[in-house]
Amino acid sequence: VQLVESGGGLVQPGRSLRLSCAVSGLTFRDYAMHWVRQAPGKGLEWVSGISWIGGSIGYADSVKGRFTISRDNAQKSLYLEMKSLRAEDTALYYCAKGRRDSIYGLDVWGQGTTVSVSS
Amino acid sequence: QSVLTQPPSASGTPGQRVTISCSGGSSNIGSNTVNWYQQLPGSAPKLLSYNDNQRPSGVPDRFSGSKSGSSASLAISGLQSEDEADYFCAAWDDSLNGYVFGSGTKVTVL
After folding, report:
1. Chain B residue closest to A3 (CA)?
2. Which of A40, A96, B32, B109 has its CA 20 to 30 A from that of A58?
3. Do the beta carbons of residue B74 and residue B34 sit within 8 Å?
4. B51 reaches A (C-beta below 8 A)
5. If we measure between CA atoms, which residue out of B6, B88, B100 comes closest to residue B49?
C-alpha cells in the first residue's frame, strides 16, 4: 500500500494550490481518506476528510471555506484544493487512509508534501 | 491550543513502563473513541492504537491504549530505545465537528 502526495511548493499569500495523493495497493473506493498537516516544529492538525464515495466531507474550522477536498475513485486519487492561502497554512501536508472499522484510525500515511506560504 | 491535553514530555529507562495521558472532555473522549499515533523523528505518523484499545496488525503488544471517562492513556511497557518518538492522541470532537489531535508527548529513553 502506498500513498504519494504531490503538488506542494512555495506560494504567495492569497494564491491557490492543489495537492494530489496517488494511492496504490488497495481498493481505494473502500476507504475514507484524510488530509493532515504539520507546521514546522509543531503537532498534527487534521485538515479534512472524505468518505469512501465522497458523500460525507468535513473540514477543520481553520480551513473551512478556503479548502476543498475531493476524490476520484477511478483514478485512485485524493485532492485538496487550497485557496486564499495564508502564512499559517505553511506545513507538511500528509494524505492518510482511514480504517474500515475506524474511519479516523489513520493507518496508512504518505510521506507528505510541503506547502510554504510566503511573499 | 488543543482540546486534548497531553504532557509535553515523558521519559524512562530501557525496560521500564511509561504511561502517557490524554485529557479531554465530554464532546471528544467522553463520547468518541480514541486513537494513538507514534511519530519517529523525520517520519510520517504511525497508528499505534485505535477504537480506544485496539492494536493494528504489526504493532507490538508492548503498546496498549485505554480509556476511562474523558481521559485516555497509552502505556508502553518494556521501553526500548526505538520507542523514542512523539506520541499523539486523537478523537472526534462533536462540538468542533472535527477530528482533533492532542498536543503531543515526546518520549525520551534515558
Report:
1. B44
2. A40
3. no
4. yes
5. B88
| B9-54 per-position pLDDT tens digit | 999 999 999 999 999 999 999 999 999 999 999 999 999 999 999 9
User: Is-contact A34 A79, C-beta < 8 A?
Assistant: no
Cβ atoms < 10 Å from Cβ of A99: 19
Q: What span, in angstroms and rounded, lies between the C-alpha atoms of A73 and A25?
A: 13
Distance from CA of A77 to the nearest CA of B (A): 19
User: Would you state the cell numbers that stand for residue A73, as one nine-digit string?
Assistant: 475513485
Q: And the C-alpha cell for B19?
A: 504511561
Tell me which residues of chain A have a pLDDT lower than 70. Answer: none
Q: For residue A61, list chain B residues with Cβ-Cβ distance below 8 A.
A: 96, 98
Phi and psi torsions of B47, nearest 5°: -75, 125
Residue tagged 479534512 (cell numbers): A48
Q: What is the pLDDT of residue A7?
A: 98
**Residue B84 DSSP code:** -
- Given a contact cutoff of 8 angstroms between Cβ atoms, the answer to whether B101 and B12 are in contact is no
| pLDDT of res. A101 | 87
**Predicted local confidence at residue B1, as pLDDT:** 80
Among candidates B44, B47, B50 on the partner chain, residue whose Cβ is nearest the Cβ of A112? B44
Q: Where are the alpha helices (DSSP H) in A72-118?
A: none
